Amino acid sequence: MSRNEDLVRWRLILGAPSAEALDRACGATADDLASDAALAWLYDRDTSNEERDIRQGGPGPSQLTVPEWINEIHRLFPKETIERLERDAVEEFEIHEVVTNPDVLSRMEPNETLLRAVLQTKHLMNQDVLAMARELVRKVVRELMEKLAKEVRQTLSGTRNRRRSLRKRAYDFDPRGTIRRNLSTYDKTEKRLFIKVPLFLSRSKRHNERWQVILLVDESGSMLSSVIHAAVTAACLWGLPSLKTSLAIFDTEVVDLTSQIQDPVETLMKVQLGGGTDIARAVQYGETLVENPRRTIVVLITDLFEGGDADALVRSTKRLCEQGVRFLVLAALDQNAQPTYDRDLGRRLVNVGAHVGAMTPGELVGYLKGIIA
Predict the structure, then answer these.
(1) What secondary structure letter does DSSP report for 89?
(2) Is 325 exposed, middle or buried (0-12, 13-18, 19+ CB in 10 A)?
(3) Is 299 in contact with 330 (CB distance < 8 Å)?
(4) 287: Cβ–Cβ under 8 A, 6 or more apart, which residues?
(5) Are 301 and 334 in contact (CB under 8 A)?
(6) CA quadruple 116, 333, 298, 220: dihedral positive or negative?
(7) Bigger pLDDT: 7 or 313?
(8) Which residue ranges does the record assign to the VWFA domain (predicted)?
(9) What does residue 35 show for φ and ψ, rounded to 5 degrees?
(10) At a CB cut-off of 8 Å and minimum separation 6, what does 313 contact?
(11) pLDDT (tens digit per residue) in 48-69
(12) What is the set of domains in the chain, with CATH numbers?
């Protein structure tokens, strides 16, 4: 019997309850059944499936170990599906062996989901596994930094002025000036403009107007993605002549990591997720770092669920804003930028001069440029 692609998909969605009705009709191959077994290993753990009559597992034990399951999904599924399965294993079903077993770690594709899992479970790892995990963290962080570093350099390396430059760099290209200069080469028949003389603008670097950026990052478990991107962002900002960057993480205590800011891997491996949160104490510590209030930007990354003194937090924020500090509260700093935070406390901070929102790392860089340019 020929294989029916649509029926095979339904067979994989519905799982074992559909076997009698669909196995023969869909013409499932050995690999299709192996795919079903791999999906069952993971998703039959979901008790809500019983209510929907899909993917119900039998009473017997699973026939796959974690390493075998990893090997099977890498053999059977495309990359996008593998990443989703691995993410669900770690985040939805908390199968910690996915990131604490060296055989499994060696097979997994480095990605941000895996990075979050490593940071959540590194306390379960022995030294050998931890060494592997650190290298995995390094690979993911390197990729994140490569994406952001170019944007940071282009945005904050200096502001463009209207003087012409002989240096032909793509991000200094002057499209309007180039069009005006080359209008004589417009071909009416082909309706195309031929550029003979591209124009570029120069960048002026304002070393004498150095700004201070103070990043205060909540290390509670719900802020993990934001912690990762804050560490990477801080490393990318470090060393820019126009900025002096400081980084501190906090729960009920504050740990200044500025001395390690150039190595976000070490920063992240020091993160201790969970515990209480004293945001007021973190902001009070940030106050002690301010050198020139009117040249300072404080970026507080937290969900604002304060375990300390909320009134003290509002007072400290008001004091900084009245001195001229730009105070930004980010409830999320990641690629999704979907905030979940204490909106009542957020409104109180806005009322004393703070800005509250959520940003991607690139948007934060743009925000900084808008202030210091």
Answers:
(1) I
(2) buried
(3) yes
(4) 316, 319, 320
(5) no
(6) negative
(7) 313
(8) 210-369
(9) -60, -40
(10) 279, 280, 283, 306, 345, 349
(11) 655 544 445 444 444 677 767 8
(12) 5-137 (no CATH), 160-204 (no CATH), 207-372 (3.40.50.410)
